[in-house]
Amino acid sequence: MSADHPAGPGAPRAVGPPPVPVDLRLAAAALAAWGAAFAATGHPAVAGWVLAGSAALLVVVLGVLLRRGRGARLALVLTATTLVVFSVCLQHSRFTAAGVQDLAQRRVSGEFSAVVTADPHALPARREGEPPRVVLDVRLTAVDARGSTRELAAPATVFAAAEEWADVRWGDRLVFRGRLGPADPGERSVVTVAAGDLLGTDRPSGVLEVSETLRRGLRQAVSGRPPDVRGLLPGLVVGDTSALPPDLEAAMRSVGLTHLTAVSGSNTTLVVGFLVLAASWAGFGRRSRLLVAGAGLVGFVVLARPEPSVLRAAVMGGVGMAGLAAGRPVRGIPVVAGAALVLLVADPWLAREFGFVLSVLATTALVLLARPWADRLVRAGAPRVVAYALAVPVAAQAVCGPVVALLQPAVNVVSVPANVLVAPAVGPATVLGLAATVLSPSWPAGATVLAWPAGWCAAWIATVARVAARVPTSVAVPPGVAGVVVVALLTVLVLGAVAATLRWRHGPGRRWPALALVLVLSAALLVRCAPRWGGPAGPWPPPDWLVVGCDVGQGDAVVLRSGPASAVLVDAGPDDVLVDGCLDRLGVDRLDAVVLTHFHADHVGGLAGALAGREVGVVHVSPLAVEPAAARVRAQAGATPVVPLSAGETGGAGQVTWTVLGPAPDVAGVRDPDSAQVNDSSVVLLADVQGVRVLLTGDAEREEQRAVLARWPAGAVADVVKVAHHGSPTQVPALYAAARPRVALIEVGAVNDYGHPAASTLDVLASTGARVLRTDTGGDVAVAGTAAALRTLDRGPDARQAERRARYGSG
């Protein structure tokens, strides 16, 4: 057979170069280091023992390696683990020197010196009438308390009044008064500080001053543009979201665009890539281009603030750009693993940050999947530019989507199209915005000119985000690990369907369209069933529901069924939209009564939504009228009677009856009550709903719970208990022992920094044998059936309202 004879069916196929083997040695070491960092930062007290064991094992393995020439991979893993644990021990000992954690346990007050390590972020007011606050990270350098001064190097989280602290910036040296408190285990901060008066601020000069000047120049360059542009462009360029409109931020979060305003690897890739391209145009050689890129990356880190997240993004962004530019993407795996390992040794607490997880996954997707997928699309006939515009966000979404489900239990099918649509605008906005930033100190007018086209790009991104957010394509998935599994399966099915479709178009074959159809139908079935996993078997609400706890975030709203389309509402939560939606889902057209247990915002803030479009018989309130909340309730009630309730009274509405067990009538005479006194003025009801007894406790603290226990009807039991104060630790176990509930309902936000529900409270409930329903994990929860045959159901968290519920959980 001649050399040019066409090959027959049995002829050997041409053999190309052998595939490059995937090198996972460093990846295994990085994963082991990650696990060790996660465990050691959660239990730093025992990290020293782990370090000793790891070091001893490493010595043994190295000895075996030298003698037999085996065990190199195990030695690499043990070395990485030992380095990470050593870093935890070293840094934790430095952080906790001078007994700062002991001071925090005693909640010592004093005067502090600190260096700000992260810009302040706004928090809502903790209580009705209180001022808004900010939270920021600092490094405490000294504390003057109890007659002595201690030198420190302790990372801390500071909560402070917004009015006085809003202008504090990264790098500032502060002196302030405050009170120490313990931090949660595993946090980077070893203590918290409730800050008081800010006594002095020393703003740094030099490089940091130049950085702040540049950031301020960009804000001024867009000062005349619409609010979306003023807030979004600084976020795109340097991660400055101080002026980002809250509704735009929520829209971007719901459609997966928040990564654009966080300083991420994509920012650094764009900046460095543009610098390399400019240096290439200028005729620079390879080494010179690398020097330009390195200098630009360092400058960008300083401009965007060298916080841990920015440093992480710089490393990962540089790796991502290098990996995408490489001819063989598999070579990027050891590079990404090496970068992750270096970062974990330098800062082991990154192992507990979702941002770090997503950065590593996105970078891995970029170097491993984006190029092959783009090449596959090109072979299928797509233009190269379109292929890469699709492959990059799809690869990132495929790898990061399951992890994002832990943060927000939902998947939005418009996320990838939204990212594709905004992709052409991100680069110009970032590069032109950065040029305007650099130009602003010397030529403000020129910076404004450059900011105009960058602003057009930002406006396009904002428009896409707002329009996409209004499309009802967000699908709820189960919270926790179940949601991760659902999103991972959905991703595999969709990608498999796309691959089958491409294979069918590339070559004939009947099985490929059939396979694509099966995979699409499987994905549709998964989407349909996922929101119900762990929830009711039938439609919501169950037809025989009696009591429903509405998922209103960190607040109370409990619905007692009083008729076919009527109810008694006990508290209205913090948000009118959330409580209105819950009542709508239950088909409640009339409220026979509304009981507002006390006048804190998380119980009365949503009253307008509860009353909207519904007939209301009466509004009952606590006898302790706290202004201005009480006046607002009276105004919203309009012509509806507003009647206080106090201990000893009985009453009812529709098919619901009740006995009032608290508070005593004399609480009405309390003047200037503090928060605990307002909680202890809560109306406590023992209600009867079609034969099912329900104890509703408001936010009663220990004092009122003891008073309720003293008034407890002899021999009475409560089938259902609404746990007091969102499951806080201020419980009286004897009250729950007397009530002997079968079901305990905890109204609590999935996002809250109060620590609710407390472990001690859950232990108390476990001792009663009650089944615990929680709105933070179950969404709307229901008790249905009859007194003889109670059953419990949950609707599952509604991901579409996650942002609204999360607004009220900061303490």
Give an overview in words.
- This protein is of the alpha/beta class and 811 residues long.
- The chain folds into 6 domains: 25-95; 97-204, Nucleic acid-binding proteins (OB fold (Dihydrolipoamide Acetyltransferase, E2P)); 208-303 and 414-475, no CATH class; 307-411, no CATH class; 489-532, no CATH class; 545-799, Metallo-beta-lactamase, Chain A, CATH 3.60.15.10.
- It contains 28 helices and 24 strands.
- Helix 11 packs parallel to helix 13 (354-379), helix 12 runs antiparallel to helix 13 (354-379) and helix 13 (354-379) runs antiparallel to helix 14 (384-407).
- It is a multi-pass membrane protein.
- This is ComEC/Rec2 family competence protein.
- Pfam families: Competence, Lactamase_B.
- It comes from Kineococcus halophytocola.
